[in-house]
Structures are given as structure tokens and as C-alpha cells.
Design brief:
- By secondary structure, this protein is of the alpha/beta class.
- The protein has two domains: 105 residues, NAD(P)-binding Rossmann-like Domain (Rossmann fold, 3-Layer(aba) Sandwich), CATH 3.40.50.720; 176 residues, Rossmann fold, CATH 3.40.50.720.
- The chain contains ten helices and twelve strands.
- The strands form two sheets. The protein has a seven-stranded parallel beta sheet with strand order 8-7-6-9-10-11-12, with helices on both faces. A five-stranded parallel beta sheet has the order 2-1-3-4-5, with helices on one face.
- Strand 10, helix 9 and strand 11 form a beta-alpha-beta unit.
- The protein is elongated and about 70 Å long.
- 38% of the residues are buried.
- The mean pLDDT is 97.
- It binds NADPH dihydro-nicotinamide-adenine-dinucleotide phosphate and oxalic acid.
Length: 316
């Protein structure tokens, strides 16, 4: 008799929401789940796991998980796991796709609009009961360059058009991703020269680490802004501070940093041309991630290919 199909034995590792994930899955009939919030509790429950859901996972435990077949990362980026040598190549890594574009677009547009419409200045004027009119800038007619025209980049691009912006896009494998003008990896300088706003939505890989270096920064327009919501290590932060100090670009809006949390000693906190947001441009909401996880559990149970499997050679 054929063996009845069942859900994979799952370990959910999350510091604050592991049990909430487990409860949501239980409500859908997935019960073979162990919820773990603390690193020290993982060891005893790992040996039997066939699937793991996590943001990050202690790599030294992977060799002790002989049944592990796949990992659902509860985020879009997988840089913290994809290069893990302890993780067997037969284990598939799946990332989350779908719920981030809307949030990312709102982050980017709230920050860009705050700059062009002078929101800080207006709030200061109001606090001082000062009636002083000025002519705000506009996004309309400006060029938004998006490096990383993937799921999230394309969602931001759609909103940019609604604001009357022209979209220039840069990606790895194609220049034909629906931007008004497409650039490839050999065209960083032309790309940087062409933008009023340069938004980084790249994954962190061996190829993209440090891609925003002194050379690219010096190609930017003195009036242009850099926005980074990809990963901090895309940018040479010391070169960025130097470029801002020497007026090579107008400012930077940063959601991600080489070291997170951003240390209090970082010059970025206090730099007058830098806006810091604490890695919340597009957050992983439990309800969204639980649904993505559930869809993959069902696919796995039914013998179908998993969704959003990462290419481990490519790194994203
Ligand atoms: P996708 O994989 O859908 O898109 C990645 C894009 O980057 C693709 O267009 C890809 O090109 C391009 N790319 C990859 N490598 C290179 C390279 N070497 N040079 C140029 N372009 C390259 O990812 P998502 O859009 O879903 O997410 C992007 C990143 O955003 C995540 O990896 C994560 O780091 C970050 N993120 C940050 C969040 C935050 O809150 N700050 C929230 C969510 C995500 P191609 O199309 O040719 O494959
Ligand atoms: C992600 C993130 O990659 O939140 O999803 O940074």
C-alpha cells in the first residue's frame, strides 16, 4: 500500500514569533511542527527535522540534520545562508517573494517625498509658528535608477511611473525588465551618471559586495541621492561618508548597514546628509510568511516543486 502523504517534520526557529507560526500552521492542519525561540533549544530537536523555517540558523547544526531537505527563509534575502558550507547542496533554500514590493515602494517614496517636499523644514516651521512659503521640489520628471530589477525593484518601478518619474534599471542577466532604460553589470558608471535617485535593491552576493565604491559614487550627480534597502555590504560605507563630505552626491537614505544594529559610534547616525532607518523598509509579517511557508509545505507534501528556490551558485 502506498505511504500516505504527510507534511514534512518542521522546525521553526524565530526569536519572537516561532509559536505564532506554529499556531497558524496548526490552524491549517500542519501539526508536526516544533517551535524554537532560543538557539540553545535547537540542538535536541534538530536531528529529525526534514524542513526548517527561519531567518538565520546556526550553521554548525546542519551536519547533525541528516533528514533536512529544505529551508524556508522567512525573508526575501538569503545572503546569511546561501554560502553556508556546512549546508549540504542537496538541501533547497527557498526565499519569500510577494509581500515586500508594496512596503518597499512606500518606504522609498515616503523618504524621497520627505526630501523634495521639505517635510523636516515644514515641521520645524510649524513648531516655531512660522509662516514661510517656499517652492518645494518634485519627483515628477526625475530619474529613479533601480539597481536590482527583481520582484521588489519592479514593484517600486510601477509606483515611480505614477509619480511621473523615468525609471532606469540595472540587473544581472537582462536589460529588458520593463524599465525605461536598461543597464547591465558592465554599465555601473553610465547608470550612476544617469540617476537623480539611485535605489539599491540588490541581493548581497560575491558579485554585489562593495559594488557601490568610490568609483561609482564619484560618477553620481552632485544633486543625486543614494537609497540602500538591499544590504549594507553593497556599499563601501567609508567611501560613502567621504563622497558625501566632498559633495559628490547630495545625500543618502539608508535602511541597511554593514553592521546591524548600526553601532552608536557609526558616523552615519549623525551625518547631516544621511537619513537612517533601522532595517524596516519591507518587514516580514508573520501572516504573510506563514502563508508562504504553508504553500511550500503543501507542495512538498504533494510532491510538487517548491516555490522560490534559490540558485545557490548564483547566490540569490
Ligand atoms: P530578486 O532576486 O527578485 O531580484 C534581485 C535583482 O538583483 C534581480 O533583478 C537580479 O538580476 C539583480 N542582481 C543580482 N545580482 C546582480 C548583480 N551582480 N548585478 C546586477 N544586478 C544583480 O530579489 P528581491 O527583489 O525579492 O529582493 C532584493 C533584495 O532586497 C533582497 O535580496 C534583500 O537583500 C533586500 N530586501 C531588503 C528588505 C528591507 O527591509 N531592507 C526587505 C526585503 C528585501 P536578474 O534579474 O538579472 O536576475
Ligand atoms: C529581507 C529583509 O530580506 O527584511 O526580507 O531584509
Amino acid at each position: 500500500m502506498a505511504e500516505a502523504r504527510r507534511f514534512a517534520r518542521l522546525v521553526i526557529y524565530h526569536p519572537t514569533a516561532a509559536q505564532e507560526y506554529a499556531d497558524r500552521l496548526a490552524a491549517k492542519g500542519v501539526s508536526d511542527v516544533v517551535a524554537v525561540a532560543r538557539r540553545e533549544d535547537l540542538g535536541p530537536v534538530c536531528a529529525d527535522a526534514e524542513a526548517v523555517a527561519c531567518w538565520d540558523f546556526p550553521s554548525e547544526l546542519f551536519p547533525k540534520m541528516p533528514h533536512l531537505r529544505w529551508i524556508q527563509v522567512l525573508a526575501a534575502g538569503v545572503d546569511h545562508l546561501v554560502g553556508t558550507i556546512e549546508l549540504s547542496r542537496r538541501v533547497q533554500i527557498c526565499r519569500a517573494v510577494g509581500p515586500f514590493g508594496d512596503q518597499m515602494a512606500e518606504w522609498a517614496f515616503s523618504e524621497m517625498l520627505a526630501q523634495v517636499r521639505g517635510l523636516d523644514r515644514l515641521r520645524r516651521q510649524q513648531a516655531a509658528a512660522t509662516w514661510k512659503r517656499f517652492v518645494p521640489g518634485s519627483l515628477s520628471g526625475s530619474v529613479l535608477g533601480i539597481a536590482g530589477m527583481g520582484a521588489i525593484g519592479q514593484a517600486v518601478a510601477r509606483r515611480a511611473r505614477a509619480f511621473g518619474m523615468t525609471v532606469h534599471g540595472l540587473s544581472r542577466s537582462t536589460t529588458d525588465h520593463g524599465a525605461d532604460r536598461g543597464f547591465g553589470t558592465g554599465q555601473w558608471i553610465e547608470f550612476a551618471q544617469s540617476c537623480d535617485w539611485l535605489l539599491l535593491l540588490l541581493p548581497l552576493t560575491a558579485e554585489t559586495a562593495g559594488v557601490i565604491d568610490q568609483t561609482v559614487l564619484s560618477a553620481m550627480r552632485p544633486t543625486a541621492w543614494l537609497l540602500n534597502a538591499g544590504r549594507g555590504k553593497l556599499v563601501d560605507e567609508a567611501a560613502l561618508v567621504a563622497a558625501l563630505d566632498s559633495h559628490q552626491l547630495a545625500g543618502a537614505i539608508l535602511d541597511v548597514f554593514a553592521q546591524e544594529p548600526l553601532p552608536p559610534s557609526s558616523p552615519l547616525w549623525r551625518h547631516p546628509k544621511v537619513v537612517v532607518t533601522p532595517h524596516l523598509a519591507a518587514v516580514s509579517r508573520v501572516e504573510d510568511m506563514a502563508e508562504i511557508l504553508y504553500q511550500n509545505l503543501v507542495r512538498d507534501r504533494d510532491g510538487e516543486p517548491l516555490m522560490n528556490v534559490v540558485d545557490r551558485e548564483r547566490g540569490y
